[in-house]
Write a structure and sequence with these properties.
Strand content of chain B: under 5%
Distance between the termini of chain B: 59 Å
Structural class of chain A: mainly alpha
Distance between the termini of chain A: 20 Å
Number of helices of chain B: 10
Number of domains of chain B: 1
Number of helices of chain A: 5
Largest interface: A-B, 25 and 21 residues
Order of helices and strands of chain A: EHHHEEHH
Largest sheet of chain B: none
Oligomer: heterodimer
Structural class of chain B: mainly alpha
Helix content of chain B: 55-70%
Largest sheet of chain A: 2 strands, antiparallel
Number of strands of chain B: 1
Number of strands of chain A: 3
């Protein structure tokens, strides 16, 4: 099956973030292997009804994080595993992001850890 | 033309158009048959609905184009003088309008896209593109050499419209699931390329013209006929 990306305008999450997270997940699980070509920015933007700048931002963020590289001849391709950020640093980034959100909400750390534990048990194994 | 006769012609044409539209209007059966021809013999109801919309977007325009094109001043006389059929321009222009309308993104708040680049070769084989281009080129060169400039213009315009359909079919957002999307894009691209080749076929009075006509017609049939197996494109891997 072809890999698809979905954007839900009603989800409350910024479209660029939705696309970014789905691509990162697909690369992480191997659904998008090394050297797989991503669609051109204009094609993906047109298909999803978004501005080109939104998709360009996704590709910029992915490139900055080492998930993809962009070359004029090949377009945007998924990098090999050696060039990608390691799992520990990704986990650290995700934890930092979560911690910042917890601080913004003023939630007690113990409550936040319980919520994270509950979320981990709720998320199906194949999405982890 | 007097006003009363013009109104009469318009009413008669409108009624004829409505009658053709009624006969051609596709339903679930036609949608399922289209998908079966283009590689999906066991289409789901959702896939059939996408195919029905695809057909309706085209057939909505056919009657009006069929009735309206001969009303363009001078068009009927030109077509009669050159043995031109109205069918090809109707099919091509109907396809072009449908593809233009399909460029709009889905109105749903939830949209999907395939994470792979797509190009013409994902939907039409290289041989079909080459044969179609060669047929159009040969016809254009032949018509230019013998100085048939109106027919030369028709050939160039027909080829341009056909290629417009092909490019728009590649460009438009996905419709339905990947299988039905692939089938419908392949159909659009191959039928347009076939029509581009077939539109250059005019039966002539001598043997070489007749042979050229037969070869072009064969090319049209070969290109526009659904392949036994749809290409395994980047979009459907």
């Amino acid at each position: 099956m072809p890999l698809r990306v979905t954007v839900d305008a009603d989800s409350g999450v910024a479209p660029w973030r939705q696309i970014h997270d789905q691509i990162v997940r697909a690369i992480g699980t191997g659904a998008l292997p090394a050297d797989a070509r991503l669609p051109p920015i204009r094609q993906l933007a047109r298909d999803l009804g978004l501005a080109s700048g939104t998709v360009a931002r996704v590709y910029r963020e992915l490139e900055a994080a080492g998930w993809v590289t962009t070359a004029r001849a090949k377009g945007t391709v998924v990098t090999g595993s050696a060039e990608r950020p390691d799992r520990a640093s990704l986990l650290r980034d995700a934890a930092t992001e979560y911690a910042q959100r917890v601080r913004e909400l003023g939630v007690d750390p113990k409550e936040a850890i319980d919520a994270a534990r509950a979320a981990l048990s709720d998320v199906p194994q194949d999405q982890q | 033309m007097h006003l009363d006769s013009a109104v009469g012609v318009a009413i008669a044409c409108g009624l004829l158009g409505l009658a053709i539209l009624f006969v051609l209007w596709p339903g679930q059966r036609q949608g399922a048959r289209l998908l079966a021809k283009w590689g999906l013999p066991d289409a789901t109801p959702d896939q059939v609905s996408v195919a029905v919309l695809y057909l309706r977007r085209r057939r909505l325009w056919y009657p009006w184009l069929f009735v309206g094109l001969p009303l363009v001043p001078g068009a009927a006389n030109f077509a009669n003088a050159n043995n031109l059929s109205t069918i090809m321009p109707v099919l091509l222009l109907g396809g072009l309008i449908a593809e233009v309308l399909s460029q709009r993104p889905s109105p749903s708040s939830r949209r999907e896209a395939v994470l792979a680049p797509r190009g013409i070769l994902d939907f039409a084989p290289l041989w079909a593109i080459i044969v179609s281009a060669l047929a159009a080129l040969a016809a254009a060169v032949h018509l230019a050499v013998i100085g048939e400039w109106p027919l030369f213009g028709i050939t160039v315009a027909t080829t341009g419209v056909a290629w417009g359909v092909v490019l728009l079919a590649v460009r438009r957002p996905a419709a339905g699931d990947p299988d039905v999307d692939l089938a419908l894009r392949c159909r659009s691209a191959r039928v347009a390329l076939g029509l581009a080749a077939g539109a250059t076929a005019w039966p002539g009075g001598n043997l070489p013209s007749f042979l050229a006509f037969v070869v072009t017609l064969a090319a049209f049939i070969a290109i526009a006929t659904p392949p036994r197996k749809l290409p395994a494109t980047a979009a459907a891997k």
